[in-house]
Every structure is written in structure tokens, then in C-alpha cells.
């Protein structure tokens, strides 16, 4: 697990506690790399984090804030981590928790060599929605350009926020945690285009082809990068709702100024539109 923290120590400690409580070291061998991108390091919190007794191998990595995937990639390179030796590599934020059966279900998961990435249930208690599947089908060139335009200006960004709030409300009305899955005929291990970027599960097959996380964008668009990379290597992204993660509502990005949020999204879309075909 590559867990990226930015000024979210309370959430991070809760996340590690959740993982620790729900993993059996005799059944699952986990190496967790805690990548600390925080601008103001809380030495007391870091000491508390390091001194805990865990049922997994904890590696604390102080990193310059290169961004979500870039910091993860830098840690992989710095520590000479070979991702392809692991059954799964998980890249995640820390404002999350896992269900009590997450690791046992992951261990028993039956997937084929054609799978490159797995999207779990990412359940928002506050909104009563499942944030996955994030993107069912590959987005069109026109849609991505429209998003780029909306992120380009303050007023159009406000329109985009309204659209997203309406979309989430519709999913909430459909009870999208369990019943939306049923209503949309999304079965276990159903093929989708991309899962939500806050918790991405990559298979050994993908990591063997990938080597490292070659996505140089500071933040956002990670879902599309993984979706496109799977397409490149002839692999599938599947939605597996039996794997359950709980979302604490974007603690790090929630504190971001709207101007920075627009900027990072625009930069991500510029990179995606330049480097992939839609």
C-alpha cells in the first residue's frame, strides 16, 4: 500500500488503525509505505504513528510534496520497491477506512490475468453514495474538452460544482450504495473504464507491465491514467463491490482553495488530452 498524506495526521492515524484492526498478519503479508507530503510535519503525530504496533510492515517516507502519484512514484524509485512482486498494489489517500472483511475478501478474490485494476466500493456515509464505479465508459473528446473549459474560469467552475452536486444527489436518491448497483445491472467484477482515484487497486499483471506509476501530474486524473494504461496493455478495470472502503469526504482536497482546485484539474486535463486518444 502506498498511502499519501497531506496535513491529515488525525485521519491517517485512524486509517492505519482501521487497516491494523482488520488485517490478520498470518493470512495477509502487507507492506505499507506511508508517504508524508505534509507541509507542516507534526513530529508528535509522526512519532505516534511510528511507535504503534502493527500487524503489517510500516515504512515512513518523508517526501517533498510532488503530488499524489508523483510522490508515490518517487518513493517506489527511492526505496527500490518492485511492485510486480506483490499480488496487489494499492495507492490511496488517508481520509479513509476499510471494512472488517476487506483484506479477507481481497485475499479470496478470484480474478483472471486479464484484470489490471480493481475498483472497490468507496462508500460516503455523509452522502450515502458509492463513489464507484467512477467512470463506466471511456469519456469522449468533447466531454473532456467541456470539462477543461469549465475548469478554466471561476464562473464555469461554479456551474460544474452545481452539476456534480446534482449528479450526486441523483445517485443518493437512487440509493447508490447497494441498490444503484442493482438498478444499473452492475454485477460483481463488471468491466468499467475507471475506478475512483482515492483508492486504486492495481494487480501484479499491470504492475509488471507498468514498472512504476508514470503519471507526472500533481493531482487529479489518476483514474483516467490507470484506465488508459490498462487499455494500452490489453487489461480490464473491474468493479468489485464486495471490497468495501469508507470515505471521510476529501479531507486534504476539501481544504484546497477553489483556484488551486481549478488549476490542478485543468493541468490534469491538459496532460490527458495531449497524451491519450479520445
Features:
alpha/beta; 41% helix; 11 helices; single chain; 10 strands; Spore Coat Polysaccharide Biosynthesis Protein SpsA, Chain A; 278 residues; 10-stranded mixed sheet
Structural features, described:
By secondary structure, the chain is of the alpha/beta class. The protein has a single domain, classed as Spore Coat Polysaccharide Biosynthesis Protein SpsA, Chain A (Alpha-Beta Complex), CATH 3.90.550.60. 41% of the residues lie in helices and 20% in strands. It has eleven helices and ten strands. The chain is globular. The model is unreliable at 176-185 (pLDDT under 50).
Topology of helices and strands:
Blueprint: E1 2-5, H1 9-21, E2 31-36, H2 43-51, E3 57-62, H3 68-78, E4 88-92, E5 96-98, H4 102-108, E6 115-124, E7 129-130, H5 141-150, H6 154-173, H7 179-183, E8 190-192, E9 199-203, H8 204-210, H9 222-232, E10 236-247, H10 251-254, H11 258-275
Helix pairs in contact: 1-2, 5-11
Integer count of domains = 1
**Roughly what is the average pLDDT, rounded to an integer?**
90
Q: Rounded to an integer, what's the Rg over CA atoms?
A: 18 Å
Q: Provide the structure class.
A: alpha/beta
Q: Would you identify the regions where 5 or more consecutive residues have pLDDT less than 50?
A: 176-185
CATH class call? Alpha Beta
SSE topology string: EHEHEHEEHEEHHHEEHHEHH
- The total count of helices amounts to 11
CATH topology: Spore Coat Polysaccharide Biosynthesis Protein SpsA, Chain A
Query: What is the distance, rounded to the nearest whole angstrom, between the alpha carbons of the first and last residues?
Result: 31 Å
Give the amount of beta strand, in percent.
Answer: 15-25%
Total number of beta strands: 10
Helix content: 40-55%
Mass-distribution shape: globular
Largest sheet: 10 strands, mixed
Oligomer description: single chain
CATH architecture group name: Alpha-Beta Complex
Amino acid at each position: 500500500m502506498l498511502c499519501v498524506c497531506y496535513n491529515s495526521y488525525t485521519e491517517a492515524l485512524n486509517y492505519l488503525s482501521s487497516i491494523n484492526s482488520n488485517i490478520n498478519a498470518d493470512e495477509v503479508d502487507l507492506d505499507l509505505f506511508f508517504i508524508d507530503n505534509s507541509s507542516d510535519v507534526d513530529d508528535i503525530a509522526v512519532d505516534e504513528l511510528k511507535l504503534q504496533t502493527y500487524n503489517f510492515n510500516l515504512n515512513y517516507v518523508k517526501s517533498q510534496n510532488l503530488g499524489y502519484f508523483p510522490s508515490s512514484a518517487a518513493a517506489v524509485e527511492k526505496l527500490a520497491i518492485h511492485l510486480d512482486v506483490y499480488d496487489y498494489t494499492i495507492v490511496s489517500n488517508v481520509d479513509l477506512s476499510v471494512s472488517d472483511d476487506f483484506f479477507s475478501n481481497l485475499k479470496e478474490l478470484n480474478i483472471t490475468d486479464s484484470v489490471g485494476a480493481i475498483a472497490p466500493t468507496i462508500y460516503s456515509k455523509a452522502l450515502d453514495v458509492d463513489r464507484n464505479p467512477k467512470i463506466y465508459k471511456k469519456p469522449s473528446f468533447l466531454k473532456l474538452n467541456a470539462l477543461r473549459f469549465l475548469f478554466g474560469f471561476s464562473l464555469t467552475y461554479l456551474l460544474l460544482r452545481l452539476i456534480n452536486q446534482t449528479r450526486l444527489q441523483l445517485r443518493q436518491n437512487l440509493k447508490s450504495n447497494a441498490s444503484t448497483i442493482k438498478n444499473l445491472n452492475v454485477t460483481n467484477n463488471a468491466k468499467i473504464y475507471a475506478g475512483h482515484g482515492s483508492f486504486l487497486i492495481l494487480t501484479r499483471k499491470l504492475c509488471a507491465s507498468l514498472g512504476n506509476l508514470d503519471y507526472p501530474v500533481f493531482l487529479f486524473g489518476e483514474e483516467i491514467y490507470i484506465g488508459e494504461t490498462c487499455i494500452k496493455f490489453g487489461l480490464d478495470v473491474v468493479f468489485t463491490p464486495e471490497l468495501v472502503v469508507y470515505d471521510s469526504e476529501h479531507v486534504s482536497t476539501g481544504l484546497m482553495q477553489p483556484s488551486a482546485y481549478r488549476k490542478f484539474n485543468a493541468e490534469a486535463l491538459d496532460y490527458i488530452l495531449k497524451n491519450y486518444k479520445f
